[in-house]
Structure formats: structure tokens, C-alpha cells
Amino acid sequence: MTLLLIDTALVIEKLILIAVIIFASLGIALYTTFAERKVAAILQDRPGPNRAGPFGLLQPFADGLKLIAKEEIIPSGANKWLFILGPGLAMTAALMTCAVIPWGDKVELFGRTIALQVADINIGFLYIFGVVSLGVYGVMIGGWASNNKFSLLAALRGASQAISYELAMGLSMIALLMMTGTLQLGEIVKQQTGPGHHWNVIYQPLGFLIFLVCAFAECNRTPFDLPEAENELNFGYHQEYSSMKLGFYLFSEYINMFISSAVMATLFFGGYDLPFFNPANHTPNFAATIGIITLMAKVVMFIFFFMWVRWTIPRFRYDQLMNLGWKSMIPLALVNMLVTAVVILMRH
Amino acid sequence: MYHINELLNSDNTLKPSFVAMKESDDYTINIGPQHPATHGVLHLVITLNGETIKKVDPDLGFIHRSIEKMCESLSYRQYIYVTSRMDYLSSHINNHACALLVEKALQVEVPERAQYIRVIMDELTRIASHLLWWGAMAMDMGAFTPYFYAFRERELLTEIMEDTCGARLTMNYMVPGGVMHDPHETFVHRVSKEFLPLLKSKLHEYEELVTGNIIFQNRVNGVGLLTYEDAISYGCSGPTARASGVHCDIRKLYPYDVYNKVQFEEVIETAGDSMARYMVRMNEIKQSISIIEQLINNIPEGDFQAKTKAVLKLPKGEFYQRVETARGELGVFVVSEGGTTPYRIKFRSPGFSNLSCLDHITKGSKIGDLVASMGTLDLVIPDIDR
């Protein structure tokens, strides 16, 4: 009977929203790979991909097609099931995060008010952390199941890196939590909107910096790309992968980058909030569209920052990475937490 | 007659002893022969304890082409061309060494014009080699962009070389008695008006992008420490040894051609770590620029080649000539029986000796340090294997 109580229209609405968001995420990730190559090309004084389609815009499809058409090799020493599970897990975990991100305010379509968020659950924060932590299993299982020494080393690197930096990330989040008093992402964005535009980054600059650094580490991006350090470990954990399994690993990195950017924009930069723009003065649909564009602009900005850093600086050494994580990031996050707590206490 | 077992079991004989390559529970990985960090077909068997390196065993010979043996059947004009393929990044300087040796043996007076051109070419080669090393080294560290920047400047240099020598990598421009032909008519203009100003305007970019980067400095400071004594006992030469404070620049110690007429400093650092090796090379680029600037507009008129016999025959005896390549001291040793080909030839290549210290300087460090140390040793594998 409970099934009947659920509004069927709501189910359809959410299913459509899920499909749209998943395909939008995939599409954005697809074009992030293209953007990465173009940004790298600009930074490196060369034209970049420009042959497939106008301005090389079809390049990501050519890349995808190539990956699909490649021969799939499973090494004879590999554990077959885990070997297949690895990239799938990485991809699933990467895609699952986008469920709780508020992409915009409400829109009115066909007489219904639709929230542009798949699930505004009251543990949005914890959900993100939980799912992001799952991502490291993709790296670990893939690296371990390959039965390759380089992959194993890389998997170990990846696991310890993810654990170390998730800790600091979580601590920096606690400070933010104490401010907002809610775990609900939709609510956090709403708190930041309004006339004053009190974006959390103004009150939590240190927390944001810690989160940013940890996001780099979580996405395995330079300077934290140790699990796939090609000059040390031959591309690391996905060394034995070919075809679309390799594609999944590469792709999940870009989706992770996209999601991290979206999370940072949501938590610290007011999500879909645009300064000097009052949604109340406009129709809800127009306001929501502007909101989505604003959020995407913020996301693109972060993604560009990710790329800019990647093509500029070298990578850390493994022990330096650990030192930074445990000796700098975690104490800093603790101090940030303490200061936030004291300030909140004083104001009450 | 003793039976072999009796001999082995008696107390008076030398006992065969075995050194285990690895213990049974060692975690060994093979860096190479195909690996991005070795820049060629070098095979390193690395014994690890977690991320820490216990032992590095270089395994050579993957690109051995028996150049020394080949040279024995080539005439003294021909053997120069093979040497371009040893250290392909210093091909001019390799050729120079061979040409100098023949000139020394036959007591040929090289025209001053040829000497000037040769030294300019040597220094241009040194710059090109150091540029490529800089890019590759940064790439080993995980920074890709410097590689493209280095190649951007090097490209102009290769074009200049192509104008004059017809080749971009294996030049074969120096011959016994001078150079093969006059430089291209635009050579002086392109070097002095195009290349040098461009490079000088870009050097600060390199320093901002890589040298001053805090991550890079942390990666190289105190890493791969080679002391003064070790540098000498391992036979290191070139920037690798000079970074440990060894005074070993052949251009200063045994000047050849017009090196005694130009003013330049021997770049010496004392720290002996990867950063010191890095700084030596970066400063050598500046010294090379200064050498070229002193020479490029003062190339005297005259012949570019001394008159030599059509068939060269070295007198009976042993001849040795050394030069400073971009990697260190290259020695050519020829034993002649008086014929048209060398009886025996031996190249003392800098890369081989510089590689030999790798195990010593990386023991106990991390995998990332191995890459940093190997990067600053500036190994060219065909130079090691020959």
C-alpha cells in the first residue's frame, strides 16, 4: 500500500531529473576531457586538438569511440571479477554524488513545482563523504586485482592518500557545519542566498582552502596524482587496464573533478546564488535558469583552476604528501574548528 | 691430476662465493627497459621496502650497438659519423672529440675560423642538451608544461642546425681539419639576433616556473646526495661532479680549440644534491650564452678546413683526446697500427660513470627521489651502452 501513497508523478519527475543529471554529468565530464586538452594546449603554447569537427569539438567522441573499439585485455594473473568491479565501482561512486547537489532553485513546469535536486536528504553532507570514500575502493580493488607490482604500489598510495585527506576534509567540514547547523545541502545554499550574499567562503576562508587542497587529493589531480604518477609508477593503478575499463577510470576522474567543483561551489560559494540578482523579482523559471547558469559558471571556474594547477606545478613525493596531510592539513583543520567554535560561542 | 671436487673441498683453494641478487622476500620492481622515467631503454631492477629503495641494479645493454667495434672497420673520416649516435644530444661535441684526436695524431693545424665555428656549435649543442634535460627533468617531477617550453626554444636551435648541417640531431658537421663546409649565410644572424635574445628572454620564465617552485625545491633539496669524495671515486664528471664541488671542466683544464681565448666561469656548486646538479646546468646555459656572444660576431675570415690527405693514416701509437660534452668528460682512446682504420678504439662516456653512482645516491630514499636523482644525472642511454 505504501507504494500507492507515493505520488506517481513525483516518481516520474525524479526519474527524469536523475536521467538528465546523469547524462549532463557524463556530457560535462566528456567535455572536461576536451577542455583539459585545450587548456593544456593554451598553457603549453600549442593549438591542441582541432581536427575532429569544428574547433576539435568532436574530439571527446572520437576518444570515446577509440576506447570502446580497443581490444579488451584481462591479464591472466588478474582476479577477473575484481578486475571488472574496480572501474565500475570508481564510475558508480563518482556518479552517485551528484544526487544531492542542488543544481538550482525550483522551476515550474506543466503546473508542477520541481526542485532541481534529486534528493534533498537531511544527511546530504554525510552522503557525499560516504560516497566519495567509496571511490577509493575502485582504485584499490583495480590496483590490487591487476596482479601488477606497480599497480599494487599505486593502489596503496591511493588508499593511504584518500584516507589521510578525507580526514582533513571532514574536519574542515565540521567547522562549516557548526556555522550552518544543518547537513542539508539545499538548506546550506538557501542560507547563503539573500540580500547580503553571505557566502560561506567569507566566514570560512581557511576551511575552504583545506577543502580545496583535499579535493585535489581526492580527485588524484596534480600535485597529488601519486597513484597514477606516470614517471614513477607507469600510470599506476590503471596500468593493466585497456579499452573502456581504462576509459571508466579516466572518466571517473573527470566526473570527480566536476562533482568536487560543484560541491565547493555549493558549500562555499553560494551554489546557484548570483550576486546583485534577486530571484524574487523574476519569474521562478527565469530565476532557476539563471541559477543553473551561475552554478555552472562557478563549476567551470573551479575546473579551470584544477587544470591550471595540473599543468603548472610538479607533484609531491609520497612522504611529503603524507606530511602535508597529517602535519599541516589536519592540525590546521582542527585550529579552524576551534576558532569557529569559540567565535560561535562568543556570539551567543 | 686433481678431481675438481677435491680441489674445491680442500682448504687451500679459493671458494666460489655467491652474492644473492635479492633476498626471497624482497619486493622488486623493474623500472624499464620501457619506462617513462628512464628516457630510453635503461633497465633498473629496484628492490623496495614499501616506498623506500633498498637497492638499485642498473641492467645495461638494451641499446648496445657495438659502436667501438664498428669503428675498428671504419676509416678516420668515417668513424666520426657513428659517434653522433652515442650521446645523440651532444653529437657535435662527440664529433669534435674524434676530429680533435685525428688532428692531434696527424699534427694538423686547424684554421682559426673552423675553431671558432666548432666552439660555437659545441656551446649551441650544450644549450640544446641542457634545455631538453630541463624539460625532461621537470616532466619526471610531474610538471608537463616545462617540457613544451624547453622544446619551443630548442626548436629554433634545431632549425639553425638544420640550415648549416642539414641535420637536426646527428649533425656530422665536424671533420678532421675543421668543419665540413662554411656555416649557412644566415647562421650568424640567426644565432646572435634570433636565438640568443629569445633564450635570454625566456630564462627567467624557466626560473619562475620550475626553479622557484616550492614543491620542486622540496623534491630536489638534499635528495640524491653525492659527496666530493664519492663523485671522484665513482668517476663522475661534468655537471654531476661539478655539483659536488669537483673542479673537472675539460674546457678549463685541457682547453681545446679556442676555449682558452674566451672568458667563462666553471660553474661549481658544493651541495652535491639534486638541486646543486640542477643549478649547475641552469648556470651553464648562461655561461654558454656568454661564450657564444664572445665568438659569434668575431668569426675570422679564412678557410673552414685545413688541407688534409684524402686517406688519413694515423702513425703507430696510442692517442687520447678528451672533451667536455653536455654530460661530462668524453674520452676517445685510439690504438693505431699505422693503418687507415683504428686497431682498437675505446670511448670513455660520461653517462656510464655518472650512472654508476645511482645505487649509492638513492639507497634509502623514496621512489620519487629516484626519479629526481636520475633526472639530474642527465642520462642518455645510447651514451651508456654505445
Largest beta-sheet details of chain B = 3 strands, antiparallel
Q: Runs of chain A with pLDDT <50, length 5+?
A: none
What would the average pLDDT of chain A be, to the nearest integer? 83
Shape category of chain A: globular
Q: How many β-strand runs of chain B?
A: 8
Q: What's the overall geometry of chain B?
A: globular
Number of structural units classed as domains of chain B: 1
* Order of helical and strand elements of chain A: HHHHEEHHHHHHHHH
- Structural class category of chain B: alpha+beta
Total domains of chain A, how many? 1
Helix proportion of residues of chain A, in percent? 55-70%
Fraction in beta strands of chain B: 5-15%
Determine the CATH topology of chain B.
Cytochrome-c3 Hydrogenase, chain B
Count of DSSP helices of chain B? 16
The percentage helix of chain B is 40-55%
Number of strands of chain A: 2
The greatest interface here is:
A-B, 28 and 33 residues
Strand content of chain A: under 5%
* The named CATH superfamily of chain B: Cytochrome-c3 Hydrogenase, chain B
Write the H/E string of chain B, N to C: HEEEHHHHHEEHHHHHHEEEHHHH
What does this structure look like?
The complex is a heterodimer of chains A (348) and B (386). Helices cover 68% and strands 2% of the residues of chain A. Chain A is an all-alpha fold and 348 residues long. Chain A has one domain (66-347). Chain A has a two-stranded antiparallel ribbon with strand order 1-2. In chain A, a hairpin with a 2-residue loop joins strand 1 and strand 2 (112-115). The mean pLDDT of chain A is 83. Chain B has 386 residues and is of the alpha+beta class. Chain B is 46% helix and 12% strand. In chain B, the strands form three sheets. A three-stranded antiparallel sheet of chain B has the order 1-2-3. In chain B, strands 6-7-8 form a three-stranded antiparallel sheet. The chains are: A mainly alpha (348), B alpha+beta (386).
